[in-house]
Specification:
Length: 296
């Protein structure tokens, strides 16, 4: 029996970094594990699926952090308007039997301002990083702080933010961080739209358009299943999107599973790849991706 889980009681909510750190250190000292789910709140079924996976770690307390991290937003991005729904979030986490919720302010997380940060490797300049400079440095920095403050043995990340997940894996490996990362597949609506806190910015018309994004990825996947080349797989997704001129496509890219460029990858046979896209629907920037088995 897992003595630290509390499936029917409300989670303990911490806003102080020191209080969280002391509580989680005590749990680790008692021989138990800690499973962390970092989020920016406005929780939906995607986040809750991460939580449900975290709950499966044996003998573990589940910690969910809710923090809209200013360090990973660029100028002109949606830091100020990002949805903040703390009471509803805590209610959802109570229903999932989460043990602790960490809800720091920016002052708690960055008492010395933005000073020491993590410098990610070259992948952080590509794909999302091409238009969001500093985004991944911000995300890796805040997650390193959350790993340290929560004393987590395990941390859960969604494939929704696939590049973030890969960069997180690179960091854990390169900096020998003592924890295990667990990727969680994308949770979608029945119509294919990947759940995202930013979907609530969309009007009804925009929501219908946004559904086309995943449809384009399915078109690419189908092209791969039919034995088409990398160029044709990307082409199939782009061609699908071209039917909808109101979707402002930023990129559609096909990479290997660790987001290496396919021209640098000499694998042959059936190669696991990722088809990734970013697009603007109205003023909302959305991302999505899908696994694709490419025959080479
Ligand atoms: P966010 O609150 O957007 O920073 O997301 C927190 C975590 O939830 C990240 O690891 C995301 O990849 C993950 N996540 C967000 N949306 C989904 C989704 N639709 N399916 C799976 N994971 C998700």
């Amino acid at each position: 029996m897992d003595s630290v889980s509390s499936s029917s009681s409300t989670p303990k909510v911490f806003s102080s970094a020191q209080d969280l750190s002391e509580a989680t250190a005590a749990i680790r000292n008692s021989g138990k594990n800690i499973a962390l789910v970092p989020t920016m709140g406005a929780l939906h079924e995607g986040h809750l699926t991460l939580v449900r996976n975290a709950k499966k770690i044996p003998n573990a307390a589940v910690v969910v952090s809710i923090f809209v991290n200013p360090l990973q937003f660029g100028p002109g991005e949606d830091l100020d308007t990002y949805p903040r729904t703390l009471d509803a979030d805590i209610e959802k986490l109570s229903a999932e039997g989460v043990d602790m919720v960490f809800t720091p302010t920016p002052e708690v997380m960055y008492p010395n301002g933005f000073r020491t940060t993590i410098d990610p490797g070259p992948l952080a300049k590509e794909l999302e990083g091409a238009t969001r400079p500093g985004h991944f440095a911000g995300a890796l920095t805040v997650c390193t702080k959350l790993f340290n403050l929560s004393h987590c043995t395990d941390a859960f990340f969604g494939e929704k933010d696939y590049q973030q997940l890969v960069l997180m894996q690179e960091m854990v490996e390169d900096l020998n961080l003592p924890l295990t990362l667990h990727p969680v597949p994308i949770v979608r609506e029945e119509n294919g739209l990947a759940l995202s806190s930013r979907n609530r910015y969309l009007s009804a018309d925009e929501t219908r358009l946004a559904q086309k994004l995943s449809k384009s990825l399915f078109a690419g996947r189908e092209a791969a299943q039919n034995g088409m080349s990398a160029e044709d797989v990307k082409g199939a997704a782009r061609k699908y999107l071209a039917q909808f001129p109101d979707i402002d496509v930023e990129y559609v890219e096909l990479r290997d599973a660790r987001l290496g460029k396919l021209e640098d990858n000499n694998d042959t046979g059936v190669v696991e790849c990722r088809l990734l896209l970013a697009a603007r629907v109205g003023t909302t920037r959305l991302i999505d991706n899908m696994g694709v088995m490419l025959q080479r």
